[in-house]
Amino acid sequence: MKFLVAGSAHLDILARPHTESSHKDRIGEVSIEVGGTACNVAFCLRKIGADVRLLTAWSDASTSKLMAGHIVASGVDLIADEIPGMPLAAFVAQLTADGDLSSAVSAMPVENHHFDRNRIEQAMDGVDCVIIEANLRANTMREIAVAANRAGIPIYALAVSEDKADRILPCARLLAGAFLNQAECDRLMRSLAASTPTEVASALDAPLFVTYGVRGSSVFMPQGEVVLIPPPELREIANVLGVGDAFCAGMISVLVEKGSSYLVAAEFAHGLVSEIAKQGSCNPYSMNALNNMVGDLWEKARMDKLTGVFRRGAFEMEFDRMSKGLNTVILIDCDNFKRVNDQMGHAAGDDVLRKVARVISEGIRSVDVACRWGGDEFAILLPRTDSTDAKIVAERLRSRALIADLHGVTLSLGITAVIPGESLGTAVARADQAMYSAKQNGKNSVCHS
To answer: Quick one: residue 36, left, alpha or beta (phi over 0 = left, psi -120 to 50 = alpha)?
Structure first.
């Protein structure tokens, strides 16, 4: 079964003090994660093994592309409209010391965006259930609900905040259910001049799921029946943001996939709630999300994609960092590499480069730095090593290459000692001369300058 979740995805910037006080500037912790009601629900559904698609909108900034990579890497099928000029999609929250929300400022570009009919149809293609949330515009929620009804697909709505709860009302008589907390339910009761949640359910013509925190939840049926759901047993509470999204995801998944009773669905949903409550982020996949995303970018910027060793720029940084010590540089050329490319194709050439990189990586110390210098040339920086030790390393690499199934490719290696304070370019020029001498000596050899 495949779910479509439509709504917000953004950065969650959460500040939490260590202790409560009356001071404006308090000591605490700040985390930057990827969240948003729709994103949280999608991640919770993925956590339980569901097939999920997320429809959202954000700016075309690099931050959005970072979030897109994180969402896709988490296994969610992402459809995101990138709109130039949109503000940063973010939720900035001040939490209490026990993890509850104290105040927040949110910027939700998705609520100012209109998805055209083709985009909505693309998002709904092949899905079995739709979940929309009130960070979307009211008319957008209705358009998606109408399209879901036309296709015979059940659709659920989430209110997300007291200020946005009224956006559910245009979806009356189109929903399979609506999820609200007590404050959001009170808001709809005021808007509809209703005296009970049952009257709201009747106006929507759909079951109304209302959460009351530690008092549990209730399901109000349009016909007047009320199902009382006990609260989850939470042994650890580090955070309460996102628990409502987890409850919705768990309930909807069981109701749609298994047709179970509300009490059975709630028991399953409480397992998700318990998991979110004991962690520091609002969903199962975003612990340290920004750090991880930046770390991935940093590694991609440093590492050569084909061979897995450093790129030249990263090698230069490492050389500068270690420039004050006694170091040596080895420059390596792959003998007969052009013949492999010409006779066997570039795929075979790529395979040779990967194997050479593996020979190098397995034949040097963890403190040594190897890079793909360019084309079929590699460079190695050996910290705290003189030319004698470097020659031992070079001979080891040359010998290992002979038994590495490189399609006849051998290695010519040039060694030079680095003069403290000299530039990498100067040192490599000497190593290059030594490597040229090795090739002139018949290839498959080691020379030093």
So the answer is: left
